[in-house]
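User: I'm new to structure prediction. If I give you an amino acid sequence, what do you actually give back? Let's try with this one:
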Amino acid sequence: MIAPLRISSMILNILSCVAVLLLSTVQSKPLVHDPTPPHPHFPSTFEAQFRVIIKANVTAPNGTNAGYGEGHWAVDYEGNKSVVRYDIHEPHHEEVKNLYLERHDLGYKYFVTSANKSACQKVKVEGRLSYTWTYVEDATYVKRGTYKGEQLDFWEGRAGSNGTEVLTGVYVDNPNEPAVIQFHAAEEAVNFTITYEMTEFKSKVPPASDFEVPKVCQEEHNYDRI
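Assistant: Good question. You get back a string of structure tokens that encode the predicted 3D arrangement of the chain. For your 226 residues, that looks like this:
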């Protein structure tokens, strides 16, 4: 994953704008009554399926201020590679398919979107793949509450140089598995939150096929250096 923090810039490249999803769906108990639970420790290598929810505080020219979809997220930390695939459905508009692949073992990261099927954004990278969960390791406990019927403990952290706020909800009886992750940030005049609702999360080495470089990214004349 690629580090989840990078998702904000990816989504902004796909949608005209993205948006704020407030925690109105989270019903919390008073913080003073919540003892601090064990700190979450998520596996560095994993495979996950998720639902993604995006909403904006402004409306794009195409009349959209929201997007919904589903995705697949895989990280092979020892193998130095990660990938996120996701399909975004904008109400009354066509589906957009996206892939963001980091292959530090090859020295490149790639971004492909169905909005422009003939182009691949390809960028050189150096060093190791960033650890996905740094913001979780440094997070502060916020509260215990319910999210869509599930009782969760919520932890708040900051990610990246711009200090993106990340709220992570974990199961009370299984704190080492994420249930929901929300990225709250701003880009110019747009405030937005991207929410991942995990439908499956496994601590396992993903198959090599998850990280295959798309053919369009293997053709030298078909990519943009960014």
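You can read the tokens as a compact description of the fold. Here is one thing that stands out. Residues 98 and 113 are 4 Å apart (CA to CA).
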